[in-house]
Amino acid sequence: MRDCLHPRDLLPLLRKQFAAPRLAAADRLVNVSGGAASARSLRQLTVWCDARFGPHAVLADGSPRPFDLPWIVLDHARATRLWDWRPQTPVDTILEEIATHAGDHADWLDVSAPF
Asked: b/e string for 79-115 if b means 16 or more Cβ within 10 A?
């Protein structure tokens, strides 16, 4: 389970923070996330991908992943309270933008791969 946040939703928060007077360290640290409303399990993502791209087999990858977390959804309530910020882009819009980008740039995974 992961939540999803569009990068463009981060910009309004950063603008507010940069424009604010110097704050105590405790007021600068907030979770910035899509939150529970944008959370999707791998199963939900697979269903979305199957509907968008057609059915495909999902294969298990048994590679060691020592830093992987099986479930992470952050709570952006502090950012909302302190900065009147909340994510604006629905997760289905984010997924559709990713899918469109992938369709328009067939080599994007190869170009962005670290190895």
From this structure: beebbebebebebeebbeeeeeeeeeeeeeeeeeeee
Amino acid at 33: S
Task: Report the chain's mean pLDDT, rounded to a whole number.
Answer: 89
Dump pLDDT digits (tens) for 9-60.
999 999 998 888 777 766 778 899 999 999 999 999 999 999 999 999 988 8
CA pair distance 71, 12, nearest whole angstrom: 27
| CA torsion, ordered 28, 89, 40, 60, to nearest 10 deg | -100
The yes-or-no verdict on residue 1 having pLDDT over 80 is yes
Integer Cα distance of 99 and 66 in angstroms: 29
User: 109: which residues sit within 8 A by CB, 6+ positions away?
Assistant: 102
Q: Are 35 and 75 in contact (CB under 8 A)?
A: yes
